[in-house]
Amino acid sequence: MTMRTLLATTVALTFAGQALAQDFNDPAEFKKQREQLSMTPQGPEGQPWAQHLGDGMVDTAKYKKDGQVTLCFSNAGVFNPWRVVGLNNLNAEAELHKDRLQQLIVVDAEGKDDKQISDIEALVSGGKCDALIVSPNTTAALTPAVEAACAKLPVIVFDRGVNTSCPVTYIHPVGGYGFGITSGEFIASKLKKGDNVLALRIMPGVDVLETRYSAAKNIFDEAGINVVGSEFTGSDRAKTKSVVEDYINRGEKIDAVWMDAGDTATAALEAFEDAGLPYPVISGEDQQDFLRKWQSEKLTAIGPSYPTYQWRTAVIAALDVLDGKQVPGPEWVLPQPAITEDVLAKYIDERMPPLHYSLCGCQELPGYPERWGGK
Amino acid sequence: MMTVPQTSASLRRPARIAINAGLVIFIALYAAIGFLQPNYLEPGLFMNFLRRAAPLVILACGQLYVILTGGFDLSMGAVATLVVLAASILINGDPDTTWAVIGALYVMGVSIGLVNGFVVAFLKVPSIITTLGTMLLVNGLALAWSGGAARGDLPDNFRNLGRLVWRDVSVIGTLPLAAVVLAGFVALAWFGLNGTVYGKRALAVGDNPRAAELAGTPVAATRILAFVVSAVSAVTAGILLGGFSGVSVNAGEGLELQAIAACVIGGAQLLGGRGSVWSAVFGALSLFALFTLLNLLGLPQALRDSIQGVILIAAVGASMWRTRRRN
Known about the structure:
The structure holds two protein chains of two kinds. Helices cover 42% and strands 16% of the residues of chain A. Chain A is of the alpha/beta class. In chain A, helix 4 (113-126) runs parallel beside helix 5. Chain A is elongated. Chain A binds chain B through residues 79-81, 231-232, 234, 236-242, 245-246, 249-251, 266-267, 270, 274-276, 353-355, and chain B through 37, 39-40, 45, 48, 52, 148-150, 153, 163, 165, 167, 241, 244-251, 292, 295-296, 298, 301.
């Protein structure tokens, strides 16, 4: 009996594992995001936060509200530098609209689902909010709370999604596959068949990160590039550097380093420096420390992004909805640019802290650079 | 002081055996590394090995002081983490403040050591509980201060302590600054135990605190000083760790247990009374050689951890068995 239960569980888990694995490797989504990467965005030139990909628009005339309005924002938390930059973007964008915006109420869920659920309930029942912006902590857990809010007021969701179509629009950049495609294709174009790439990842099981890896892995497999290892670093510099050094000391030739997030890219590069080896081809992200290193050491590199300017878009969308203007929807897909050699210099700002995300679209916003920790 | 020569004569023999145990394991493991990857026998990679092992060796030397007096110091990993975070937040990329901040870090370390020592010596709380408490306290402080994420920046003159390598040095080829720091710290630790009366007192306190007290040994002072040395070693290791890889919120994670394991592998006796600086040094080098060997074998991280566990138990078991047979 126990044996049979065990066997059944094992079989069930195996299939569950496969089902999960397939979630992160969806050929249709891969194809869609690859197309979106090469689309020409619509909207104002040079303002990617106000642009969108695709043609879908939603009518919002029924939400029109005159006079001064109050926006409410339920934030999943500010638990990493990306979210710190993002929240600064959102506050600064709100400052631009002082004439229309009476108040912006921001509630921080500190990374907890249950706190965010009660935050949303409190905001909705408080009656002060004219529109609600939500950056969900996790997708499934926040869905019912968002659905309940939709019944009372217009809701705008961004970054991570929810499993319901009730929000007026869901704002997000192209996505994880897009990130993996940009970085994977760059590395594949610089390497020969049979060359080695080391993949450094933050942690397993997070969809936006898993899709980045699965997309890049598909491209490497297709190009005949050998993934010598895929290691988790927990976004920790010390761990990253020792992992890379371990691979170097094993005597393996590493031609490229692929990363699913760039915050420890400089630590990975240091391991090559310390071993007296030439720098590998590398994909990082849009953080200042990586961009500076790239420029000073003339690296062969690319900085794909998951742009923080989407935090600006959330405010723009909410105000457009209250103006009764049409907004891109039901998904507002933002362009997801990558930093390449030819535009590198434009994104380097020596005043900014090392982990500042350069594609913040915040250079023209009030309070730059001090608000973002710059000098 | 008349008794000193006599005690040292009776202690010399086990200390010499301890050297051999740690050294033999280290040579065996390093030979295996050299067999798998011959370039590890070149001076360059050996120096690099020393550089990476330096924080663990230094921690083991500090831990040894506490182990000799019959205690444990579980707080050293947390102190090392705090050092890395505090340095990055206080210096924040300004190279002019580096040396002042390093001074402040040592003051901080000494105070943590004093707290540990006073609680153990005067409140009579077992050291494993005391330092577990300080570990949680220090970890919590570090987390609260940094907000749980790496902040700030470490300038090059701080990073150099763990990173700088002089190339084209005669005979050995390359010389990492961390190896020099390591040699200096080991020499001081050795002098503290062998060149002063402290070493004999520590062994006496660890062996039998009651007897030591009756014989007139300042038991409380001996214990407190051991915790201070241990905390100072944690600060030193933290500076090297921060230098090696920059800001990290878990730089010192798990190092306290590795340091204890290193001492025991090298032949120091848990709960005190036996051991030398060489037990700590060669124990730590053996442990680090083991990590390197498992990495060269290309095992996945998870399996490496398990094998480490098994080998640790085996090594400590063997050393216990050796000690018992000798007695």
